[in-house]
Specification:
The chain is of the alpha+beta class and about 160 residues long. The protein is about 75% helix and about 15% strand.
């Protein structure tokens, strides 16, 4: 058997011998150092478990925060809605009061408003009176009543 190996080695050139020796050396080094290299590059499963546990804890905390924020949004929305409804009722009550006042005014006869201005002058000791009259008739109260009714209808439709 060694006779055949020596014949084979005799036929190989020195360059080919060097290349073959380098290949054998690389293979031996790969077999010896390969597992250590792979082990050093690969994380241990316990490290992954710790990482996954930490991420799960973060997910749970963030989920709790999201749930609390959702509750806050719902509560604020309910408060806002109740405030709006309360304000709309107040406005509706005011409009109802104005309608009742306008109905009472529309039943009264025409009202005459008088304004008097008195001017005193020291130089001549005279008094000047100026009077202005303005009448508010039933037409104005009727228009006011129509406007208030229209406002009440618009409020109730929303």
């Amino acid at each position: 058997m060694f006779k055949n190996v020596s014949d084979i080695l005799g036929k190989i050139t020195p360059k080919q011998r060097i290349v073959a020796l380098l290949m054998v050396l690389f293979t031996i080094i790969s077999v010896i150092k390969g597992p250590q290299l792979i082990k050093s590059l690969r994380k241990v499963p316990t490290e992954y478990l710790e990482l996954v546990d930490n991420q799960n804890k973060k997910i749970l905390l963030l989920s709790a925060d999201v749930m609390k924020l959702n509750e806050d949004v719902v509560i604020q929305s309910q408060e806002c809605t109740s405030k709006r409804i309360k304000r709309e009722r107040e406005i509706s009550n005011i409009v109802d009061e104005l309608i009742s006042i306008a109905q009472v005014v529309s039943l009264k006869p025409t009202i005459v408003l008088k304004t008097t201005d008195t001017i005193h002058t020291k130089t001549t000791d005279t008094i000047h009176h100026r009077e202005a009259q303005q009448s508010v008739g039933n037409n104005d109260a009727h228009e006011l009543l129509l406007g208030l009714e229209n406002l009440r209808v618009n409020l109730s439709n929303k």
